[in-house]
Amino acid sequence: MIHTLETVIREHPFFHDFPEEHLSFITGCAKNVQFPEKHFIFLEGDPADEFYFIREGMVSVEMVIPHLGATTVQTLGEGEILGWSWVSPPYRWHFNAKTLKRTRALVFDAKCLRAKCEEDHNLGYEMLKRFASIITSRLDATRLQLLDIYGHND
Amino acid sequence: MATMIENEVPQGLNADPMIPQLYRVDRVRDETDDTFTFSLVPENGEAKISFLPGQFNMLYVFGTGEVPISISGNPALTSVLEHTTRSVGIVTKAMCLLKPGDQIGVRGPFGSHWPLNEENGRDLVIISGGIGLAPLRPVLYFLMAQREKYRKIVLLYGARAPEDILFKKELERWRGKFDLEVQVTVDRAASGWRGNVGVVTPLVARAPFDPSNTVALLCGPEVMMRFAVMELQKRGVPHDRIYLSMERNMKCALGYCGHCQYGPGFVCKDGPVYRFDQIVSVFGKSEV
Ligand SMILES: Cc1cc2nc3c(=O)[nH]c(=O)nc-3n(C[C@H](O)[C@H](O)[C@H](O)COP(=O)(O)OP(=O)(O)OC[C@H]3O[C@@H](n4cnc5c(N)ncnc54)[C@H](O)[C@@H]3O)c2cc1C
Ligand code: FES
Predict the structure, then answer these.
(1) Span B247-276, pLDDT tens digits
(2) B224 and A149: CB-CB below 8 Å?
(3) Residue A152 within any structural domain of the chain
């Protein structure tokens, strides 16, 4: 079965109940991309002008720590959204994103979306609601990681 | 609170459940640097071991003390009893020093069990963290023998680091052998690790199961289970199809002493495996 971009977007839980009138604009901002294994999708400090829906594969969100090298803080896989630094200034990536496997994704032109959200606050609110929920989940997950819930007998 | 066990539950080998039965350590296997699995055999070699997945025994390290430890072995084996223990304190550290040939006291099996015969025909999602995989290992043995009873089976497992993953070889074998989707994640990893990094609960959102026809089994740190329940709720799994294994300090394991009180009941009798709708009013409350 061939999935059009619009179907893929419409069926993604992120866009559940998204107002019909904005869907074609969102679809216009998206395109399919593929990355080979060990490819840097973006680098810390670079402009954050897009975000991604991972359709297949795995991406490591990592940071280079002196003496430790590249350290993965989180991995993201099928169905997950990569990148929310485009939402708030200074619009620069805070981490590196590197593929651990061949990865297929939808990339969204966030620069264009950001401008549209400034113009149309209804769209801006719908997008922010959804990204706030992702940010909350990631914050919860980070807190659990920090709690070291499995404990250890050091 | 009503007990979860409506059907026949195995009783201990002794007539008096307060008196430990003498077992011998037959084999010790190191799972990680602080976790080990004992294979125990009854000193009275004729006794037949019988338990249901999810139940626990009280293990008595002579001269030190007694602790509740879930049974982690294959429920189909009647001659050997397996327990996987993480050494955290006085008793478990003393237990860790026992060697093959040493004796240990065993009371049990006690408590409720996972609903393996009651929930057939559905997808099964198992969410576990840390040592929480040990009480679920008998479930995996059961499923290996009776794979046809469930549709999709998904195991989501979180550990602190790659070197803390329990039953590594078995996980690989089960994944390859009987159509089990296994997703393992670690909280932190060095650069050589090629698997998932992050806590286990976000894996629920993307795990391949049908929420309208799924039963979920959860075992791990309580805070992990709280977040796992939230993720299951978000996906629409009803409360009466979520089962959790709870832990509280124990002494008698028989519902006499009150040490393991949990809400209006006792974990040793009414649990450790609870159906979520039966504990929803007390679950996650810090004063309970
Ligand atoms: C029904 C049930 C099943 C269990 N199954 C298993 C199992 O299969 N494998 C296993 O390794 N453990 C299991 N436990 C936990 C185990 O009983 C405890 O780790 C043990 O009682 C600790 O005793 P200790 O004397 O070694 O530690 P203590 O000296 O009593 O405590 C030392 C330290 O460990 C911490 N601690 C004590 N109990 C726990 C606990 N339950 N969880 C986390 N930290 C704790 C204490 O807060 C303290 O910091 C189970 C508990 C219950 C109630
Ligand atoms: S341990 Fe005594 S009542 Fe449960």
Answers:
(1) 999 999 999 999 999 998 999 999 999 999
(2) yes
(3) no
